[in-house]
């Protein structure tokens, strides 16, 4: 992802419909690096000859690599540092290939004030094709919590 300033929003700053949109071009280095970190050495991700014989016809990114792009948005932009993942659902709909530009969209869909929880609608798309969607529940710190952590 391009380097962007980290934005830290407190629970009090969130409103329904608030969203963040980020774009990421998937590289060979991303896929190899994710395989190294995760230990997922499935040849569909790493071996061109093997992948060429699959229904995809070429190497594809790990599904959880694409999901990690959502995590990056949540951890750095919406709501940002201090947010704690509670859960994440993922629906994988289409493959992501080397060179694809993934559009990552995260939007506040529900707020539970008493518990400082936010439900975030999450979607990744390549061109007009949704490749992954789901929702995340996060605990979002208050302004007071953010100030005391700084």
From TrEMBL:
The lineage of its organism: Bacteria, Pseudomonadati, Pseudomonadota, Alphaproteobacteria, Hyphomicrobiales. One of its GO terms (biological process) is fatty acid biosynthetic process. Coiled coil: none annotated. GO terms for molecular function: (3R)-hydroxyacyl-[acyl-carrier-protein] dehydratase activity. This is MaoC family dehydratase. SUPFAM superfamilies: Thioesterase/thiol ester dehydrase-isomerase (SSF54637). It comes from Phreatobacter stygius. Keywords: Lyase. Transmembrane segments: none annotated. The keyword Lyase applies. The keyword Lyase applies. Residues 24-117 form the MaoC-like domain.
């Amino acid at each position: 992802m391009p380097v962007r300033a980290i934005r830290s929003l407190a629970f009090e700053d969130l409103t329904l419909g608030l969203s963040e949109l980020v774009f990421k071009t998937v590289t060979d280095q991303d896929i190899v690096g994710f395989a190294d970190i995760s230990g997922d050495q499935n040849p569909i991700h790493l071996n061109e000859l093997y992948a060429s014989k699959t229904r995809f016809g070429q190497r594809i990114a790990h599904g959880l690599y694409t999901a990690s792009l959502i995590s990056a948005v949540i951890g750095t932009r919406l709501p940002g540092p201090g947010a704690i993942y509670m859960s994440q659902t993922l629906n994988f709909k289409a493959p992501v290939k080397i060179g694809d530009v993934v559009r990552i969209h995260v939007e506040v869909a529900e707020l539970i004030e008493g518990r400082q929880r936010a439900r975030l609608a999450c979607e990744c798309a390549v061109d007009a094709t949704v490749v992954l969607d789901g929702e995340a529940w996060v605990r979002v710190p208050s302004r007071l919590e953010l100030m005391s952590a700084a």
